[in-house]
Amino acid sequence: MLKKWGIISVMLLSSLSAGTYAANDDLSELRDTNPDEWQLVKNDARRDIKTYSKREDGKRIRSFKVDMIVDAPLEAVARLHFDYENYPRWYFKARQSRLLKKVSPTELYYYQVFSAPYGLPDRDVILHNVIEPYTPQKGFLRFNITAVPNFMPEQPTLVRILAMNMTVTFTPLGGGKTRLESEGYLDPGGLAPAWATNYVQRNAPYAVMLGVQRMVQSDDYLNSKLPMPFKYKE
Question: START domain: which residues (predicted)?
């Protein structure tokens, strides 16, 4: 009986939290003086992380942007992002991740499954990454990532994410540091309330950056001598 009431209590708290966030989200929309401009969501000066969101014309879900300085060289940060099988160790709500197809040293497809907020079915996505390797002339490495929902059949019990499009730019700063900037848009597919998607949009970028900062200090990335699986510089 106590166990049953514990479960009910968790459900009630989840519902209250969801309702509270939805109400706050609606209020924030009214307070936005320039809803089509980037709004600062979080400024973590101690960790050098800033996140933003923006309401795009014709879209019910905000875009996101993140800017971070990570204490690791470009090679280590690239290694972490190329290690697709280990994304669940650090990427927000990822419970599965794997490389699907290596087209070339600068092009690939990968697959991810994400845990959804309480009461919603989990999501999966197939992503196409076209890599622009670092050159001294450009000064950065860039991932151009787009969702390709029809690349493989839909999976039972999972809702296919329709859009998870983003650019991720890595700029070496010297002194063993790298600037990481990402900007993009997510459409979770299915029947997902806007407040739930916007909640993820606001919190996921910051959580992902924390994961990068933590994981990139591992010997597997910081001091690895293994060949790079993809081309990160010319």
Answer: 23-198
